[in-house]
Amino acid sequence: MSASAALAQFFAIALALALAPLLTGWVNMCRAWLQNRKAPPLLQPYYLLHKLFHKDVVLARGASPLFTFAPYVVFGCMLLACAIIPTLSTDLPFAPAADTIALVGLFGLARLFIALAAMDVGTGFGMLGGRREMLIGFLAEPALLMVIFTTALISQSTSIATIVDTLARGPFAIYPSLAFAGVAFAFVSLAENARVPVDNPATHLELTMIHEAMVLEYSGRHLALIEWAASLKLFAYSCLGLALFFPWGIAGSDSLAGLLPALPALAAKLAAGGALLALVETVNAKLRIFRAPEFLGSAFLFAVLGLLVRLLLENQA
Amino acid sequence: MIPVIRRILRAGIVSEPRPEPAEAVELDRLQGEIRRILGRALAIRQVDAGSCNGCELEIHALNNPYVNLEGYGIRFVASPRHADMLLITGPVTKNMEHALKTAWECMPDPKLVVAAGDCACSGGIFGESYASCGAVERVIPVDARIPGCPPTPRQLLAGILAAIGR
User: Fold this and answer.
1) N or C terminus: fewer CB in 10 A for chain B?
2) Structural domains of chain B sorted by starting position, each given as residue range(s) with its CATH number in brackets
3) Candidate from B11, B40, B76 with C-beta closest to A204
4) A216–B8 C-beta distance less than 8 A
């Protein structure tokens, strides 16, 4: 690993940590405007994290070490996910450490820990949230894997850096399979990030919650880590989607000259993506929980269609 | 979808300007820097300790785009563990006394308690009886009060902002 590659990797992680709450703030801001209200400050998520790190931690009676340990695991998983997803450059030293399948596994590990921690205290809403999260998870993960297999077949590799490199700098070609995969990925991202058709991140009604219901017992710095991890997850999914389906502007080298033009391109794409997410959340109503399997089933169907199109129609290369 | 977007665009931003600030509240337990940090991203847990729901209707109006509590970075949360402020309405009935104390104990420090409405401030028309403990401060310490029967959303907003020194 060269020094400049290590520096680029470090920069990518620092960028994810710093930008992730900003993306959440931007989505909240757009959503407030679409609700005809004056928006909270763009930096509101940072104020929230700052406040939570200044608060005490209150633990429920009977909370096991798993409960206090889980936020660190979840945060670590999301940080590692952000480290291997190409945000600015595809030349990342960490990329060979985990391929796309391992990336899905990382998200799965985080989900497992947060669901276990939710059940650990033994409150009714924690149990309910944990079980709903697993329901969403086992439907979303296969669809995500199918999307990834489609892109892996195009580039003949499961390494995420190679995939993005092929899509961004390979010979120009239009892949119909990617259109199907893109729709499936959008559905999965909405479900995985607890967004409106499946879950509502701004809800106060315990009976409709999925992600919120699992973190009801957390407070102080634990809650801060979980909120930050949720922002990082949204950032990771956004960057993954942008890298797979809109890979223009990602640098191929780790030199400063390559990274600098990639930064405004990423910022512009994230801003557009965040605004689109807020619009989707505004014009859609939340689905009944038992309709979520249909929603994710159609995501899986689209992903399989993409894979079939790739195998049957595009396989001449 | 198109009609919805068209209506959103036609309505524009409807949020009203900030209400006249209420009388400044002095807090002994919570001062200076920590009060400012708390106030920038305040999380409120509302507890109905036996109210007639008049105050709840007004509190609910805080979330609409006109009064727009969210625009100040303040939000309601679903768990006392996430909360910095307990917003209590109604005289504390004997049945809610234990629940109110538990909610207060569940909140992580630093924390605030605001009594909203005449009943929570003084016991109101219910007062103290075999079924009611009366004012909130007889059960847990109260930092700020918002009188009114019920207080209007703008009075509530001014009271909440005064309690966090904004």
Assistant:
1) N
2) 41-163 (3.40.50.12280)
3) B76
4) no
